[in-house]
Amino acid sequence: MLISPSTRALWSLAAKNLFFPIFCRNCRERLLTEENGYFCPTCWEITERIEPPWCPRCGRPHTAMVGLGNRRNFLCSDCRDTPPDPIGRIYGTALYEGVIADAVQALKFEDKHRLAGPLGETMTQFAATWMDLAGYDLLVPVPLHRVRQRERGYNQSTLLAEACEGAFPNAHVCEALKRIRPTRTQSTLAGVKRAENVRGAFAALGDGFENQRILLIDDVVTSGGTVIECARALMRAKAQSVDVLAVALVEHRAARNR
Ligand SMILES: [Zn+2]
Ligand SMILES: [Zn+2]
Predict the structure, then answer these.
(1) From ligand 2's centre to the CA of 218, what distance in Å?
(2) Do residues 83 and 149 both lie within one domain?
(3) Mean pLDDT along residues 172-185
(4) What angle do CA 150, 199, 116 make, to 5 degrees?
């Protein structure tokens, strides 16, 4: 009997799990397969995914009360008070909390780069449900500064872009941006300082962005300062449009206080 490579891989994972059991990071239940590898299926779905009614600019969900009556396309109060920027629209699969926040942190800070697979799958499902998949030419990961990338060994946004690339039939991953100076971690800074911290920090690499419809990929959007600066660099390079897809969005109030 011929055994396919995928069957063999499953058996070897099962055998590994028998001798080195793995547990859900959230509920500590033993995981029976390595399908996700870090969370059981129940915990993985615990964090609510974002769906309409939502703000058509920043992608944050409206509360059910505000969204009643199917008024789906109105800006949230924060976006009404914010000056225009070059981003068409920000999409995020969930608010930055619970299991999703834990998974993003593990991907970024604990070297758990295999989490890019399930997180990318979450982005793929979201995109297939709510986005115009054929409407993008390039998936551009938000870059790390080369020093940080060397320390970490990978850019989590590139891993996420690669993991959801298959969902976008006309687009491919292109590391089109470069951080031209190091910046401090945005979450360590108060609101106004964040915009200063990242201003002019990015440049597009080479050319070939003319008339391109770009989807920026990031792990978390906090105040939006980083993705706005990335979009400015891409628009300077003559891109046609820039949208953003992130795993998670920090709520406006939390973003201001972080
Ligand atoms: Zn669990
Ligand atoms: Zn908004």
Answers:
(1) 18
(2) yes
(3) 87
(4) 40
Beta-strand relationship, 138-141 and 213-221: parallel
- Number of structural domains in the chain: 2
pTM value is: 0.89
Q: Which residue has the tokens 């993008």?
A: 136
The distance between the two most distant Cα atoms of the chain, rounded to a whole number of Å, is 67
**Rounded-to-integer distance, Cα 246 and Cα 90, Å:** 8
| Same-domain check for residues 135 and 187 | yes
Q: Which residues contact 98 (CB under 8 A, 6 or more apart)?
A: 46, 47
Q: Could you list the residue range(s) of the whole structural domain that residue 138 is in?
A: 48-257
153 CA to centre of ligand 1 in angstroms: 28
Q: What is the pLDDT of residues 25-42, one digit of tens each?
A: 999 998 887 667 899 999
CATH number for the domain harbouring residue 110: 3.40.50
Q: Which DSSP category does 145 fall into? A: P
Q: Do residue 70 and residue 88 come from a single domain?
A: yes
Other beta carbons within 10 angstroms of residue 165's beta carbon come to: 15
Ligand 2 centre and the CA of 68: distance in Å?
17
